Amino acid sequence: MTDTPEAYSASEEQAISPSRDAALERIANRHMGFDTLRTRIGPIDFREVAVWEVKDALEAAYQAGLDAAGSTRVAVPNQLKSRRNPSEQ
User: Fold this and answer.
1) What is the pLDDT of residue 79?
2) Residue 21: which of 45, 37, 44, 5 has the closest Cα?
3) How far is CA 69 from CA 10, 17, 18, 31, 65, in A?
4) Residues in domain DUF6900 (predicted)?
5) Distance between CA atoms of 28 and 56, rounded to whole angstroms?
6) CA–CA dist 28, 66 (Å, integer)
7) Rounded distance, CA 82 to CA 59, Å?
8) What is the pLDDT of residues 17-36, one digit of tens each?
């Protein structure tokens, strides 16, 4: 697997619906501070994120999938909701 944008096929891009793409962008913005998920081919495409930010984003994406499938909401422990500042725990 390669890290270049050419590694992604057009069929993979088309498989993402506009609403799913928008949901992913909202999650990336809210939990990891990304302005966009569009590839800009440069250093601006890379940034450091804390592991708790990645975990929060993955939990939000998982929950969004459950919600989209009509599943019941899964409770997330309070300790996971406030991982922005680990010193507060």
Assistant:
1) 53
2) 37
3) 25, 15, 17, 22, 6
4) 20-69
5) 10
6) 18
7) 13
8) 788 889 999 999 999 989 99
Two tokens, residue 47: 């940034």
Contacts (Cβ under 8 Å, ≥6 apart) of 52: 83, 84, 86
Distances (CA, A) of 23 to 7, 11, 41, 66, 67: 23, 19, 22, 13, 12
* Sequence-separated (6 or more) residues with CB below 8 Å from residue 40: none
CA dist 15 and 21 (Å) reads 10
| Arithmetic mean of pLDDT, 56-69 | 91
What is the number of other CB atoms lying within 10 angstroms of the CB of residue 56? 22
**How big is the CA angle at 89 (ends 74 and 76), to the nearest 5 degrees?**
0
- If one compares 46 and 13, the residue with the highest pLDDT of the two is 46
Of 6-20, 51-65, 67-81, which has the strongest mean pLDDT? 51-65
